[in-house]
Amino acid sequence: MSLWLSPWAFLFLLPFVAFLGWLLWSGGPKRGYVRFGAIYFKELATTWRVRLKYFPDVLKIMTCVFAVLALARPQKADEKVKRNIEGIDIMVTLDVSESMLIEDMKPINRLESSKKTIEDFIKKRVSDRIGAVVFSGEAYTRVPLTLDYQLLLDNVAKIKTSRNIKMGTAIGVALANACARLKDSDAKSKVIILLTDGENNTGLIDPLTALRIAKGYGIKIYTIGAGKDGDAQLPVYTPDIFGRMQKRYQPIHSSVNVELLTQMAEETGGKFFRATDTKTLESVFSEIDRLEKTKIDVDRFVKYKELFQEPLWWAVLLYVLAGVLQLTVLRRGI
Question: Taking the model in full, what pTM does it have?
Answer without folding.
Answer: 0.65
